[in-house]
Amino acid sequence: MTAEQRGPLTGVRVLDLGQIYAGGYAGFLLAAAGADVIKVEPPGGENLRRRGAVGGGAYPFAALNAHKRGVRLDLKTERGREVFRELVSTSDVVLENFAPGVMDRLGLGPDTLREINPRLVYGSVSGYGKEGPYQNYPAMDLTVQAIVGVMSTTGHPDRAPVKAGPAICDFMAGVHLYAAITTALYARGVTGRGDVVEVTMQEATYPALMSSLGLLYAGTNDSGVWRTGNRHSGNAEAPYNVYEAADGYIAILCVTDNHWQSLAALIGGPELAADERYVVLAGRVQRMDELDALVTGWTSSRKRTDVVSALQAVRVPCAPVKELPEVMADENLRKRGMLREIEHPELGTLTVNHSPLLFGDGTRADLAPSPRLGQHTDEVLTEVLGYSQPQLDELRRGEVI
User: Fold this and answer.
1) N or C: which end of the chain has fewer CB within 10 A?
2) What's the rounded mean pLDDT across residues 365-392?
3) Is 393 a catalytic residue?
4) 123 pairs with which residues across the strands?
């Protein structure tokens, strides 16, 4: 275990079969918390690595697989499965996000692996679960956004539904898988037994619909259209929108009447602040268009920085709408160590994210770059399983590793 890997999960060994985002992010969070995460990939590499050869997948792979060790292992061969089962016998966690049934067909399902190692925590992510009417549906972030209600609540009411920009279903599932695995590890410390934990993208995302569901149960929407653009999903706050500035856009919202009083005094003076039509929330919600026009009239001739400074001075919630290059240069993310540069052996200098989870004194350790395909195969099989060089050579001749 290297000094950089020290953390609350030091001593935990994870076999990470994750691919694309959900599984990969859960593995990243475990690695950043100190676990020895061994990324097990097929001969051609996992899907996200292969995507990097034709598009923008190289950066996401590097970011989500930092701090892991890489092993190349062909699980479609019997000898490869034997090696994997040997690794399982000395590991604490297996995580995967294959379609339901894939691991069972390989003879590597949770029941089989926990016979080998009863202390094993087996964690899986799928789109809709290993049981239920949707179990065989192909699942990607877009399809889950569609089926769980994200798309029906995203966009403007007079236009077609749109997807959320971030892959929120994948990453919500990854965070929940991390939580499930660490919870099961805690329980194992009490009972001595491992467990099987399952997370679905659909179920992990559903709770994020709370504002929209509140509007549904309020019974105030007769249109059957749940898209509110940049306004509050439950139409419960006003002003609440994104407003044009002279050089971009700004998100501004008033959660309380005091917020409105402060904003009104800025944009219209004491007269607007005292206007009885807007003094209480109920009146403002009924006059959203009027309020948006008033706020836009004030912001549109001013620069973002000037608007934000004025609003923050009177404690009105607001933020500039930052473009991606601005986000990657964000001073708060960099000051806190969430964003940092690493030297990647294949991609050069990269800005990558650390884990959002802070432990102890809040210091984030340096991140090791993502591994090359199979970079640590010999190291892991020698260190963990005691393989000799002739054994490694034999596996390599058989294209098992």
Assistant:
1) N
2) 95
3) no
4) 95, 197
Rounded to whole angstroms, how far apart are CA atoms 292 and 14?
51
Peptide bond into 270 cis (omega under 30): no
Average pLDDT, integer, range 89-117? 97
According to the model, what pLDDT value does residue 305 have? 96
For residue 3, the model assigns a pLDDT of 43
> How far are the Cα atoms of 38, 74, 295, 336, 389 from residue 41, in angstroms, in the given order?
9, 8, 53, 33, 21
For residue 4, the model assigns a pLDDT of: 47
**Residue listed under structure tokens 């209600």:** 149
For the ranges 7-21, 47-61, 78-92, 127-141, the lowest mean pLDDT is seen at 47-61
Residue 1 has a pLDDT of: 39
Average pLDDT, the chain: 93
- Contact predicate 29/8, CB 8 Å: no
Q: Over pLDDT 90: what percentage of the chain?
A: 86
Length, in residues, of the chain: 401
The one catalytic residue among 170, 247, 275, 378: 170
Note the pLDDT of residue 29. Answer: 98
Tell me the one-letter amino acid at 312: Q
Q: Number of helices and strands (H, E) in the chain? A: 18, 11
Tell me the sheet residues that pair with 131. Answer: none
The H or E element containing residue 248 is: strand 248-253
The angle, 0 to 180 degrees and rounded to 10, between the axes of the packed helices 257-273 and 304-313 is 100
Residues whose CB is less than 8 angstroms from the CB of residue 59 and which lie 6 or more positions away in sequence, other chains included: 52, 347, 350
What average pLDDT score do residues 303-316 get?
96
> Which residues make beta-bridge pairs with 340?
352
Strand order in the sheet with 248-253: 240-245, 248-253, 318-320
Q: d(Cα 274, Cα 314) in Å, to the nearest integer?
A: 17
Q: How far apart are CA 342 and CA 349, in angstroms?
A: 6
Asked whether residue 337 carries a pLDDT value surpassing 90, the answer given is yes
> Which of 242, 223, 246, 227 is CA-nearest to residue 305?
246
For the chain, what is the largest distance between any 2 Cα atoms, rounded to a whole number of angstroms? 86
Residue 379 half-sphere exposure toward CB, CA atoms < 13 A? 12
For residues 282 and 252, what is the distance between their CA atoms, to the nearest angstrom?
Answer: 18
> Whole-angstrom Cα distance, residue 296 to residue 244?
6
Residue 196 DSSP one-character state: E
